[in-house]
């Protein structure tokens, strides 16, 4: 009798684990719950689940003969009415035990631990960043992406240096095609240069590196003259000069500022424009005009400007005077030449050379020096 009860209990336990509702609950929980390893931490996670869908409510146990497999039906039909009642009671007890919160939490913890162990053992694919092709200006520099080991060379490809030369040749040909076919079309968009009007006192300077990535490409430089700003009186302009500080050039009356703390040029330009508006608004505020603060230009080094003397500048009167002096000198030379008083430089040099040769030929012979002493040459006497 004990063996007959043990076998139905075993089938009841198997049947309770195979119920359709139980499988739905396992599938629903496995998709929503995180990998928690302790029952004390898993319970609040289930209560605070924010996935938007709650698990199906648990239904009371009801015995269904149609859910038994053919083998279990055969053994169930062989039982007596008392054994069938005992079988149903044991199956109900097993079902309630397996669906209790403690057992469910323990089983879910085992499943989560198994999933965690499998994820630790399974190697993950590393995310490879997309390769950035270096431009013409970065050609030849060390690339961090190429710092690893090279692949084995099987003789079926060119070397890496040859690939670099080929890539550079392709890039040059691409720019040549652009210059030949695309740039002439830009002539249609050309506009004549128009000087900025008085209501445009701000001058912005941009820097481009022809498509290359550079950290200074987003830098914007702003320049403006304080006297060109409309609506400023002289005291307000002096206050503005005191506010900008070292960015003011007292020689040119130009304020120079720059910004590169944002990612795009438009953001930096907008920041500089707002900064100028704030400075102008503060300069027009007559609550405190900084009259007790003197102007400080120690940051600027004044360079001396050398001017050409006015007396040295060539004028029409000066040119006529010089021509008259030259004409008088030529007339004086002609008179000296007629009287034989004009010296010819070439003849004077030839005469001096002839006299030097004659004096050298008349020089005394060298005197023999005694033994043990160096022979001394007699000095030339002219």
Quick take:
The protein is mainly alpha-helical and 382 residues long.
Describe this structure in words.
With 382 residues, this protein is mainly α. It has helices at residues 2-17, 20-32, 39-47, 70-77, 81-98, 101-121, 160-182, 234-244, 265-284, 316-339, 345-361; strands spanning 203-205, 220-225, 248-249, 254-259. The chain is elongated. 5% of the residues are buried. Residues 1-13 and 15-52 have low confidence and may be disordered.
Largest sheet: 4 strands, antiparallel
Residue stretches low in confidence (pLDDT < 50, at least 5 long) are 1-13, 15-52
Fraction of residues in helices? 40-55%
SSE order: HHHHHHHEEHEEHHH
Strands of the biggest beta sheet: in what spatial order?
1-2-4-3
Shape: elongated
Radius of gyration: 52 Å
- Chain-averaged pLDDT: 78
Helices and strands, with pairings:
Blueprint: H1 2-17, H2 20-32, H3 39-47, H4 70-77, H5 81-98, H6 101-121, H7 160-182, E1 203-205, E2 220-225, H8 234-244, E3 248-249, E4 254-259, H9 265-284, H10 316-339, H11 345-361
Antiparallel strand pairs: 1-2, 2-4, 3-4
Helix pairs in contact: 1-5, 8-9
